[in-house]
Design brief:
heterodimer; A: mainly beta; seven-stranded mixed β-sheet; four-stranded antiparallel β-sheet; 47% strand; B: mainly beta; five-stranded mixed β-sheet; 0% helix; globular
Chain lengths: 116, 110
Amino acid sequence: EAGVAQSPRYKIIEKRQSVAFWCNPISGHATLYWYQQILGQGPKLLIQFQNNGVVDDSQLPKDRFSAERLKGVDSTLKIQPAKLEDSAVYLCASSPLRLAGANEQFFGPGTRLTVL
Amino acid sequence: DAKTTQPNSMESNEEEPVHLPCNHSTISGTDYIHWYRQLPSQGPEYVIHGLTSNVNNRMASLAIAEDRKSSTLILHRATLRDAAVYYCILFYNQGGKLIFGQGTELSVKP
């Protein structure tokens, strides 16, 4: 089966500019996640969708970050305006609805963002 | 959210078994133990998970202590392609989320 697709793979922008990342999850996966991974750290969950509803966005900096998952399939994460500290890899993951505890997540290759 | 403790780094020789430890002394009865790994320049990859009993799959084995306060990921025969950061994560059974720590960076020597 096709994996999680993300684009672009790399993006370089100036601070205060806007940027958007796109994710297409594995077909049929109800749950979609966006993570931020700063160099040298583990991924940090930003937002979790189940179908097109938000389950958890407690770690999303809502003053500058937004995300949507229209029609419960692909998703877009936007940063507006970007700050230097937003430089990171942005990972998208998806998972099917399964038995509790068996939350195997499938990750995409990520988008590496550099803010200058 | 319950925390895990892992060594920052470990070394292994190719074709030898590797035992990656994880301490989770504050684990609750409903927490599952998940392991993911992240190869260089890739997204994390699911390895294995368990609740109380030891588990085996094609990638690895998971040994869980009787009191569940620690676990060990076992790679039976390390290859160069197993060099990665390995994350031990506690997943809360009901609506929880994966919280990644620093993980253990495994290097494999030929």
